[in-house]
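Consider this:
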Amino acid sequence: MASVRSKYFTARALVVHVVLAAWLVMCVLAAWWQVGRAFGGNSLSFLYAIEWPCFAVLGFFGWWALLHVEKPTEDDEVARREYEERMRTEALAAREADATTSEEDPTLAAYNDHLAELSHAPKKKLWGH
């Protein structure tokens, strides 16, 4: 029971509850308004009358996600940093090995030179001919 209270009755959670309630009320009112317009002859409002309840469902999923997202622990952060550093080291080693063992393709080199020239060439204005 303590975990439920800590999850659903914190200050942040109460704000999220209030925002969800306001969102659901707004979606119901907008759907009701669109149903009235649809029966009044605006056929496009039938689509909007379906759309607003979908927005309400999305708001509910957002509410659920905001309440159930857990902050990463310090151990998770350390593991993530170690993983990223290991991946950077492996990628650097792979690039260095590739650079020392293979020559650049002449066609690729010519294309890269062409792109370098284009990047330094003055830009043409494409408007106001």
